Amino acid sequence: MFRIAALTLTLSFTLLHTATCHAANPMPPATDGDKERIRAIVKEVLREYAAVMSNKQAGGTEAKDMLGNLVQDNATFMRTHRASHFKPFMDGQHPRATVVTCADSRVHTHALDTTPDGDLFMIRNIGNQLATAEGSVEYGVHHLHTPLLLFMGHSACGAIKAAAGDYAAESPAIRRELDTIQIPKGEPGLSSIRLNVNNQVRDAMAKFESEVMTGRLTVVGAIYDFRNDMRQGQGRLNIINVNGETDPAAIARLELMQDLEKPAPKGKAKAAPAAHH
Ligand SMILES: [Zn+2]
Ligand 1: distance of its center to the CA of 183 in Å? Predict the structure, then answer.
């Protein structure tokens, strides 16, 4: 509280000083520098106020409960993960997939990778889009050279629902991220979720044409279906697009798709290859 009082005093003094200058001098008193300084002081006062308020309210808030959960789970994680767990990726990452998925809280990596650490270069945004995360996707493909770029949509996607409706009342920032979802109005369901994933694969293939054409990159579109809307099993990652191929029979015939559900004989091939630098 002392700091707030001090800051308020500083602010009052500054304002008073400005007003005094004004009275004595007909020239406009507040230069841009003055205004900037006042703004900074006001901001600082408000920030102090917010910190004090949150401290007072912290007793039984949901935020405190949640933060407690995170800290406790992290403590468990640290207890159960020794140095050997971190060793393979401590000095660098060599992920095998760049994954663009929705920010939706119901979608997480444990549905598709039991050991995602160092393995998945994750990019998340509303609607699992390339357009709103282009630099991040480029980083995964061009700098980390992941052989797989996966766009993962999901059932009951709120971003798709929003984009299919009237979102004019949303903030500019949200509107901007919905504008790039190209689906028909009035179709918020599975067909649009599918179309959006296919659009992402199309755009990524255009962007990374040379990588795809030379076989260095495979672009895959999938839908994580936690509601079993596609009737393929609850929680299944349904692969619906491989390098632009969307016909299920043709996808099933691809060499890439053969024996995928059999356990890999040599296990995961991601143990710190010495060749990487
Ligand atoms: Zn979503």
Answer: 14
